[in-house]
Amino acid sequence: MALKKSDLYSSLWRSCDELRGGMDASQYKDYILTLLFVKYVTDKAKSDPDSLIDVPVGGSFDDMVALKGHKEIGDRINKIIGKLAEANGLEKVIDLADFNDEEKLGKGKEMQDRLSKLVTIFAGLDFRGSRAEGDDLLGDAYEYLMRHFATDSGKSKGQFYTPAEVSRVLAKVVGIGAGTRQDHTVYDPTCGSGSLLLKVADEAPRGLTIYGQEKDNATWALAQMNMILHGYEDRDIRKGDTITSPQFTQSARLQTFDFAVANPPFSIKSWSNGLENDYGRFEFGRPPEKNGDYAFLLHILKSLKSKGKAAVILPHGVLFRGHAEANIRKELLRRGYIKGIIGLPANLFYGTGIPACIIILDKENAQARTGAFMIDASKGFMKDGNKNRLRSQDIHKIVDVFNKQTAIERYSRMVPLHEIADPKNDYNLNIPRYIDSSEPEDIQDLHAHLHGGIPDHDLDTLNGYWEAFPSLRATLFKPRRPGYSDLAVGLAEVQQAILDSDEFQKFAMDVRGQVDDWFAVHRPVLQALNPDTVPKDLIAGISDDLLARFKNTPLVDEYDVYEQLMTYWHGVMHDDVFLVMNDGWCEAAKPRKTIEDKERKLSETPDLVIGSGRSATKYKMDLIPPALVVARYFADEQTKVDALHAAADKASRAVEEYIEEHAAEDSLLAEAMDDGKISKPLATTRLKVARHEGADAEELKALQHLIKLYNGEAVAKRTAKEAQAALDLATLKKYGDLTEPEIKQLVLDDKWRTTVTSRVASEAEWLTRALVSRIQQLGERYAETVGSLDIALEMLGAKVVGCLANMGIES
Prior knowledge:
There is one protein chain. The chain is an alpha/beta fold. The chain contains 30 helices and 21 strands.
């Protein structure tokens, strides 16, 4: 079975569980990622004779597996890793973690068991058949772990991981694309684990020449391993403090690069400790002693070639702080070096919850630049635990808008330099000064409250709907007086009136039709999946086309449609594609027995169970869920089974209702109760006793009826269970009879197309609910005028006076 991302992730995280207790996440990442590296290169060497990593005898993961349960397992693992490091010149890179450290791993049997379990978890993974080099499966797993490590490590360790979503934005806005040559250079002066550099390189079809510097030794080692895992053996990643000891220099000058990206540590106070040579970086002003944000920005600017471009993540404070930073900002703007600014949501980064921004620098044509393009992307994100994350649609929208310099109300605009330089702004770049992203206030209309009617200006704000459904406004509203309207239908009928309108029905059909047309165009490509398919290229092509098709669809936001596809891709489709690529359609569709592995703590939830009890056989259907096979081939049988289940439920309800009616204290069934409960054996036993005692005829009749109901329930349940078992058996057998064309139809049409269509159609349904909700809100808001409320108040007052009078109290 092909290795899926989800399986890999869960295995890696289980391995972390084995290490918890003796160390924190910032330490156990070194152990996990080292084993991940050794396992991967061992498996790849078996399947690829030209593997760039030499796995020597006695230096493989298989040698580690042979040590399970060995008394000296820790020391022996160290020696195995040492051999692998020595054979590839990776000393002080992959051998930093000490697998014989008793403080972290325990003494004697504790270490022996812990490392044996750890090795067992990795032994269950098989990278030989993986397409990691084409799909970056391993890179994604690497980032998955680092995301968790960064979360678990707390604030002090967050610096080694830039969220992949933010990295993708930087990579796409920095100017790298199809025309980028392999000899073009990209530089990250605070490269951490290297994930940001790799995302940037991924945007260049022919690759890039990578340079990076990292201060922390362990994180530098992570970057080295990460580069090797991604095939960048010729990278140049150096150690040291970028500001005080830059490693990329040419005599007394800094080396320059075509592109630079960075997520430097925010507002570092000790940036200048030990600084002797500034390499001309501070010609526009020296940053404050206790805030190094501009030190990194100026370092990057100085490290760019004459046409160089950079994207840097910095805290929002760099946009508006005064004094020395204000002077630097002014000089950068006047020289045209700042091409744009993108405001990001708060709480995206590990180690800080403060909002950050991306500053895009561009030296090319800087003198001719007359403004800075700004985007306020602070509202676009999803919650992910205690952090926020950019969604696929947020990334795409930011990149599209920035690269095309598209102006969107409350989101983006080109801000002229003269506006920034105006004395009222004084080169302050705080985004809300130039883009008001707040939602318009929902203003109450006093005249409508006094005299009734819904203000037409409120209805005018729904113009997108009236343009999409030209006759709907006249259907829902009628004029009351100039500037005000009344509902022409009752509040409760608003939703049905919209759903019944021909225009809405056509709109809903058109949305589904657009998805069907889109899928029909791409079906041949999806049908032709093979081992050479590159999933990330596949989804990029089909998702961009879906987005483009909905660009001019009224009401529907094309990025919302795009997100529906991408969410399904990440959750289901990617694994499906991966299975088909590795196993082929027929093999991938075969049922397999569920994995039950106590040693690896694995217990899969079955999709189908044949038999019962200990003789039950549990199956997993990775590609085609049984429900799809049943729906296509056994629809009639399923209808009959559903009816039998419904009959069984009805029989159970009849028992419950009868007991509820007759099982109260002193009732007909009270003598059969035990501890407030009743069952068929209890009822049967009581019936025998009651007959022997010559009990009341009504009690005997009630007990007999209850037993009859119990018997009917048992028969109904047994009949339903037998029918379900027969259907399950027929379904399992059908998997073995499926032809490749049938499998493709089930996956492509019944699963992928149907799901995507349904998800996109839900966007149209959401729009309808939003319209209904707003109309009902307005209808309720102005339903009662102040006059009608006064009358109601007078009537209530009169009632109170009357009640008081009846009580003999004068008001």
